[in-house]
């Protein structure tokens, strides 16, 4: 249980840092969505860029079975490397945005 609590804290800290970054364009809000009960964590951009509605997921991380699943990374940063640097073993990180077949060729967990 200690491992799970640590992973929750790390994921929230990382997303809180990314949540501070407001886009330089448009009237866009940055939403931090933390479902701590079900272990779903997201950063969304919501608002207007000119006459265009913006609603997009920037980061999506889940914790499933004591592993951190990177479901989506719309940033230029390597979130998996951030997690490894924070002490998460690579075998506890799943690149969920990669197909199950391709995951076996990464240095991270297949599932």
What does it look like?
- With 111 residues, this protein is of the alpha+beta class.
- It is globular.
- The protein has a 5-stranded mixed sheet with strand order 1-2-3-4-5, with helices on one face.
- The chain has one domain: 2-Layer Sandwich (TATA-Binding Protein), CATH 3.30.310.
- The chain has 3 helices and 5 strands; from the N terminus they run αββββαβα.
- The protein has helices at 2-19, 79-85, 100-103; strands at 27-35, 40-49, 52-64, 67-73, 93-95.
- The mean pLDDT is 95.
- Strand 1 and strand 2 form a beta hairpin.
- The longest helix has 18 residues, at 2-19.
Strand content: 35-45%
CATH homology superfamily: XisI-like
Number of strands: 5
Low-pLDDT ranges: none
The arrangement of helices and strands along the chain is HEEEEHEH
Task: Return the structural class.
Answer: alpha+beta
Say what oligomer this is. single chain
Count of DSSP H/I helices = 3
Chart the SSEs and their pairings.
Layout: H1 2-19, E1 27-35, E2 40-49, E3 52-64, E4 67-73, H2 79-85, E5 93-95, H3 100-103
Parallel strand pairs: 4-5
Antiparallel strand pairs: 1-2, 2-3, 3-4
In short:
This protein has 111 residues and is of the alpha+beta class.
Task: Summarize this structure as a short list of keywords or feature phrases.
about 110 residues; alpha+beta; TATA-Binding Protein; 5-stranded mixed β-sheet; 5 strands; about 40% strand; globular
